[in-house]
Amino acid sequence: MAKPAEVATTATTTTTTTTTTTTTTTTTTTTTTARPPRSILFQDKAHSVVLIDVPASIEEAQTSPAEARAGTVRSKRLVSSQALARPFTTPEPKDGKGGGSGLVDSVSDLMTAAAAAQALEVLRGQHAGCCCLPRINPEEACVAETRREKAAVFIPEGSVFLQGTIVSERDRFLVEAPQFDLIVLDPPWPNRSARRKKGNYNVADSLDSIRETLALIPIASHLAADGLVAVWITNKPGVMRLLTGSGGLLAQWGLEQVDEWTWLKITTSGEPIVDMASAWRRPWERIVIARRRGSKKSVPWRQRVLVSVPDLHSRKPNLRGLFEDVLPLGYKGLEVFARNLTAGWWAWGNEALKFQQREHWVDNIAVESSMYVSS
């Protein structure tokens, strides 16, 4: 007979030894340079020479700065002109002087020409890529537009617009507008060649009339303490004097000039769109950068040169991303005499919705119809 199994009466004590391991984590903070947006095709180490794609900069301006830098897929593409492949031929005066009616080479002009020439040398020596991104041309867009589509306007998130003249919208601006870290002005300076072009590109009749209009803009009350102002100017000598001369508009607004940028326009092969020594036309426009008088706000660039293959006549590079290095994260911006909107910014002008019209955009991916409002 089998012996029954013994029942163990001995208590078994299980001792669990808990070993506490202290792990010391060393956190290393690495400072990385923010990725430039897609519109920036090249910039030198000092960021003083920047090759920027005009249509792409406007497309990126329809999204937040974070989305632009992250390379978020664009829902819309801007319909653009054909990229210029060859320089324009500009007739020159037979005597080489222009009979007194051409552009005068001031000290400022000579400095601009030198900065532009140096920028071209930098590009030729350091940039082997393209000068502009592929574009959507009107004949390629083939957008089937209904009356409703023609009346639709694309409104970027967080943008506010005052659609009207400086006079008609001034009271509303004074009541509703906040202070801004950056105010960009693109005044309709008197320009005979622009007046001859077809379309609705409005220009002022004279420097006196545009001065009266600019004087109505309440810059002093709506610029943040360490804010900046950027004013696009033409190459007409009187324009610079109107801004920076004794008793000029900068003084009237309580500002002082801190820098001057150049927007150099080139062909797809990297040549200036006209001869830089032309007596009648320059391949550049300029931007006067100013701050409040007495402000300690500094800018890290000197005579910064933006280089682009131009688009339609009144389109310029969107400047939002170019000031992110010196202004607060998510800074507030205002564009006066705007022709398109920028996400998170205010826009003011009677053409503020000009390039937000449905006819200027094609869908990149499907988007909700709620992104459009009736104009």
From TrEMBL:
SUPFAM superfamilies: S-adenosyl-L-methionine-dependent methyltransferases (SSF53335)
GO biological process: methylation
A GO term from the CC aspect: nucleus
InterPro entries recorded: DNA_methylase_N6_adenine_CS, MT-A70-like, SAM-dependent_MTases_sf
GO function term, MF aspect, one: methyltransferase activity
Region (Disordered) residue spans: 1-37, 81-103
Protein name: MT-A70 family
PANTHER family per UniProt: N(6)-ADENINE-SPECIFIC METHYLTRANSFERASE METTL4, N6-ADENOSINE-METHYLTRANSFERASE
Record organism: Coniella lustricola
Organismal lineage: Eukaryota, Fungi, Dikarya, Ascomycota, Pezizomycotina
Family according to the record: Belongs to the MT-A70-like family.
Residue ranges crossing the lipid bilayer per the database entry: none
Biased segments, Low complexity type: 8-34
